[in-house]
Amino acid sequence: MFNFGTSDGQALYPSRNNIGTSNGQALVSINKPIQTVRNNINDIKLDQPKNENEVIDFFEKEHWPELEAKKFYNHYQGIGWKVGGKTKIVDWQATARNWILKADELKEEKTMVTVSQNTDNLKISSNKNYNEPL
Known about the structure:
The chain has about 130 residues and is mainly α. It has four helices and four strands.
């Protein structure tokens, strides 16, 4: 039968320098080996376009007007190519596609607001005579 936990000291192993003459403390590394993993996104730097023409070309491929490309470029150039003022853009083309999607949503919302403003929900006349008493 084994007798565990009866020793008062630490496990000691001979040191490498003085094998057999001196006892040293058992050293075990708690650090794991560092592995360098390369990220494909970081290998190809896409965080910002080279110039405004590159953005215009991208928007033209997506069938969007040059004016919208200039708005996108000027906006992100002005805020240092960051999202929310904090996070650096990793892929500007993905950010541009999101810009396009948001522009579509804004167009839809604007048309819905215009339609609701043109309808007369209260069924009142728009020709009012303020000289007549209530």
